[in-house]
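The authors assume throughout that readers already know how a fold can be written as discrete tokens. The format is easy to grasp once an entry is in front of the reader. For illustration, here is how one protein appears when written out as sequence plus structure tokens:
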Amino acid sequence: MIPTTPLHSAKILIVDDQPLNLTVLEHLLASAGYTEVSATSDAPAVAALHRLHRYDLIVLDLNMPDMDGFQVLDSLRLIETEQYLPVLVMSAEPDYKLRALEAGARDFIGKPCDYSELLSRVRNLLEVRLLYTGSRDYGRRMASHDSLTGLPNRQLFAASLEHQLAAAWPRASALLLIDLDGFTAVNDTLGHAAGDALLHQFAQRLKALAPPQAAIGRLGNDEFALLLPALEQIPQASAVADQIRTALHLPFELPAGPTTLTVSIGIATCPGDADDVATLVRYADIALHQAKQEGRDHCCYFTSAMNQQAQSRYQLEHALRAACVNGEFELHYQPKAQISSGRIVGAEALLRWNRPGHGRVSPGEFIPLLERTGLIVQVGAWAIDEACRQIAAWAQLSNGPLPIAVNVASRQFADAKLEQTVAAAIARHGIDPGLLSLEVTESALMDDIGRTAATLAELRAMGVRIAIDDFGTGYSSLAYLKRFPVDTLKIDIAFIREVTSSPDDAAVVDAIVAMAHSLKLDVVAEGVETAAQLAYLGRHRCDQIQGYYFSRPLPAEQMEQLLRDGVRLQLPADAGNAPERTLLIIDDEPHVLTALQRLLRQDGYRVLAANGAAQAFQLLAEHQVQLILCDQRMEEMSGTDLLDKIKHMYPDTFRIILSGYTDLKTIMESINRGALYRFYTKPWDNRTLRDNIRSAFRHYWQLHGLAEPEVAAPMPLQPAGGVC
């Protein structure tokens, strides 16, 4: 580590066209103890100033009016022809990072920046700078850096590991050793000049991908090292490894033409695997050797538990690539049913994979990997074509063609060929474009709004229908619903799961349905699994449902049989019927429930009974209830709390508390909130209770402007009595 005094006396120049930025950075560096700090807003003069003062570090803004930062870098390279260019660039444009590094900058930090991070980077750059400037000559630099890539060599990288690991302790760090697969063949077939060009380009990509505090080195011929210090979680190392492997999908531009390579990566962690540099490097090297033994494009952890997990994931990716080649995917179809008629009016095509030797793989396991690797573009194109083929096949059935929806991932929207893929599939199978629907998540829509809007407009112009999947979980807003040409909203299962018992979820569902209908959009509820959910959605004007209550996703043959058999969705018996005088009694004491049912059925009511909140919510969803009689003191939830929730979900109901437990304050608060219509005490008088219930029903029909249903004449009143 460089002593503090030489660092603080290093010469630093700040270049920015904003006087306020200059003042803030000067003050920040001075507060950190740096004594030789100067600043300028004159970008064209930077090269001359550096020639005169030979700064140890230049903090350079890229976006300046008279002369941008890239031009400044070009002028500095003319001075530092064979030396280290001491520039830390700053910009609010993250896309400039790779370009700036390729132009010679040593580091990049985005605006606005964290000042602690900025000071850390300044210190790190100065430490490297002072290793071969000032008292150290150019020869020392050549001894510690790789002349081809400019990266620290094995000796310098190992020395820097000591400092990085100590600074990160006790947080975990990960060392990645990276080896280019097949690099020897490039040297042998294309020559050493091509090999050098490839190594230089790879080093630039590695610099661009490395997180801000990472350390990079070239350890040997085609072996590189990347230290990730102070990780929040060890799996972050896997994410970086994935990024490196993905970056190599882009070819290297060599004189003989584009060339593509893969990498093998070995990972060891500190302090999990080792707490000293030598052992950490050795363990990472063992993991790298294991990765190379398993073939190209592999990543291995040294730790056995981590290694097993990593192996499964990377093996899965290789199996996925083979599945794409071998055609191992298939589509299953989950029908969508119209609530009003029960007819099947569409289906969603869902991707399935039967992995050879392993059986069915969960979509939640392989689809995210398809998206992460970019294979989703290829597989998604196949799914669109296969869905169009199936639409054409089912069009020959007697009950007519069936619309099919296909999910489209954000990576597919980023592909410029999506529109051509859809158009080609429609033309190839000769189907009506309106029978194909593309389902897009809200997050996918918002990745690139301009591109998304243009793509959707072109698809819509073809006649293809557009649905927003998982609506309510992302950027739900009227603004983008107006901007994007959408036909259908699909309510996410997260809101359907507890729609019959959660006032919040019920409110969201009601709001989505109302908003969609006001915009003339169809509404589909996903994940409907119970009769209560179906009944609730039907009464609240949802158009269609999809879920296991009606049918699981089916292979094409079984789906076709469902269509041939004319299977329909059966609504709960009470859904959509004319109102009937219905009373719900809630009490956790069975003998009380029995007594009240026996008493009140004498007056011709349909009496429903629930022993607690869960059963009550289910009955409320399945039946049209006008009056609720609820005990106050129940173990699961107090009567007033339960009726508060019911009030929000079923505001038209009349809610009555019947209890021997008289907490007047709680009861009055509930009445004042509008949660209660009446409060009666136990023991009750049979005659009085029957009269009051009859009056409550009469009030209900009058309040809602409805004629009271005709019922049989009530039976004679029982003698006055009570039940506890």
User: Anything to note?
Assistant: The chain has four domains: 4-143, 154-302, 328-565, 582-704. Residues 56 and 133 are 8 Å apart (CA to CA). The chain has a mean pLDDT of 84.
